[in-house]
Amino acid sequence: MYREEAVDAALLGGIAGRMCATHEPLGAYAGAHRLNYLFVDRNEVVRLTADRESPEISQSVASEYPLFDWHEREMCDTHGVALAGLPNPRAMFIGAGEVPAALTVEGKGVTVIVVGPVHAGIIEPGRFTMSSGGETVIHLDAQLSYSRRGVEGFLQGRPALAAAWHVSRICAACSVARSWAYARALEQLGGVACDERSEWARVVFAELERIYNHLFDLASSAAGAGYGYGQTRGLGLKERAHEICNAAGGHRMLFDAIVPGGVRAGTLRDPEDLRRSVAVLRGDVVSYIDELFGNRSVTARFEGTGYVSPETARAFGAVGPARRASGGDIDLRSYVSYGAYRARPPALARETGGDAAARARIKRAELFESFALVDGALAELGRHAPPAPATVEVGYGAMTTVIEGPRGTESVSVECDELGVLERVHVISASYRNWPTVLRAMEGNIVPDFPLVNKSFNLCYACADR
Amino acid sequence: MARGFKHSLGIRHLVCGSCNGCEHEMNALTNSVYDITQDGWDIVASPRHADVITVTGPMTVAMREAAQRTVEAAATPSIVVAVGDCAAGDGAWAGAPLAGDGAGVELAAAVTVRGCPPTPAQIRAGLREAARRLDGKTTSGKSALER
Known about the structure:
The structure holds 2 protein chains of 2 kinds. Chain A has helices at residues 12-22, 69-79, 151-155, 164-167, 175-190, 196-224, 228-249, 271-293, 296-302, 310-315, 320-324, 332-335, 356-381, 430-441, 450-455, 462-465, and strands spanning 2-6, 24-30, 34-41, 44-51, 110-115, 127-133, 136-143, 258-259, 262-263, 397-405, 408-416, 422-428. Chain A is α+β, with helices and mostly antiparallel strands. Chain A has 2 domains: 2-79, 2-Layer Sandwich (Beta Polymerase, domain 2), CATH 3.30.460.80; 151-429, Orthogonal Bundle (Cytochrome-c3 Hydrogenase, chain B), CATH 1.10.645.10. A 4-stranded mixed β-sheet of chain A has the order 1-4-3-2. A 3-stranded antiparallel β-sheet of chain A has the order 5-6-7, with no helix packed on it. The longest helix of chain A is centred in the middle third of the chain and has 29 residues, at 196-224. Chain A is globular. Chain B is α/β, with parallel strands linked by helices. Chain B has helices at 21-28, 64-72, 85-88, 103-106, 120-136, and strands at residues 10-15, 42-43, 52-56, 79-83, 111-113. In chain B, helix 1 (21-28) links the parallel strand 1 (10-15) and strand 2. The chains are: A alpha+beta, B alpha/beta. The A-B interface holds A 93-96, 99, 117-118, 120-125, 145-151, 153-154, 165-166, 169-173, 175, 232-233, 235-236, 238-239, 242, 252-253, 255, 460-462 and B 13-21, 23-28, 30-34, 43, 45-46, 57-58, 60-64, 66-67, 70, 91-93, 95-99, 116-117, 119.
């Protein structure tokens, strides 16, 4: 469900602030004609809108709710919106010129360590500036946007249906979740419902994406703890997950597997055969997880590292496994319930520890649940491939949809004209939502634990930068 | 292993606006299936240690200077390998407002591996081609080798 509420521009900030008490805030963006603050409540996405051109200047919500900081700065940066009382007016995105100075701590004995934008491993670019006292990090600053291609501006003016191919390629690691959110947005604008078998097929793809990502997170966390064997074995299992993705959807990262109207024709040709391969992988993942979590020297490194309190997670807008590891109880698959999850809602994984250990346990629980979901969804498909996608005719309107991706809330907002051409598309990824929490998680930890803290979240840059 | 191939490669990876799909497949080169260490290859932490710089993405305005400096910092001889359609200049984001001509095009790659993303096996084949060229020192295109 989707609800739009138009309000006076001068009152927007105040109303948005009050909404935070009753709804889960999703962020904000400047639309083609209006400013939008997004929220989600059970079964419902709410878009609070006000006229962008109104001379009444809206009040920033970020001073009270830090999770709006990036969203509001982005509105000001990219759309020339003037918000009063913005707590952090630094430029959000870097261009060809000077890179903005990092926020650092000043004082006796403070050392400032800068890494990036080019990193030592096979990692996306970003500049991290750690202010440390001895070994202990006092403050961590991140300058992202090195991967900024300008995808939203590029997609503007294109037919919404054709843009699905591009949307699938904004960020590989959450491609399925974003394609699903985008497909749902267009289907709702076009008044088309996806058929039941395609909905089960979508669950297969989304859960396979979660499986390869969670395996990657655990393998990378093992690496962060100096457990090379755990990394090697985890990456080997991830490779097998990619091969299963390829067999299921014709692409190792399932690009274009979910399309507006259903799933790509020719995918999931033999659900029964796939079920057998998934069961074999599951067996080996169980054994891997037993070994990883049974290794006391590894779990000891996870415990207490990268602690995020429930208050911090909420204030800074953490989502997905990161939020659920700090006491959060929202998983959009059951919270707003969409597609075939309505018939088979996943069990909620919830921890209260807030550290790297809690985040690893969340991923362990979600891995097992994902395997069960894939198996159940494939059983529903039986011996038959899902049907070819339905025809979607996109018309005039605005829509925001949310999907629970591997890292949490993935949202896509689209605004189309009468011909189904994109006037505005805005993508807010789970990584974008979680980055501010990673920075807080590093405070009080030692510098050499940065890889472990970082990889316990394992966020992407491409979807955050766009 | 290719006949006559003697070169052990130090590979430095450079991301210039990639969607991270190519990075997943570059990472796969280190897993137990593709395990490039068996070829005497390794992913190295500094361009100073590198024989090959693999580059991905369309190139972004923000990465351009850092990317140039990374390639210039590489050991001599060395070779740039473009990985993926974006780096080749005609990927999904070619023509986007903050995207460039392709990381491989801008950084004068001598070898280009196609795909969105290319499979690990395709990337490995591209690296073998780079190794052959380094061995024979017969680069085509302007690579760091010619400096």
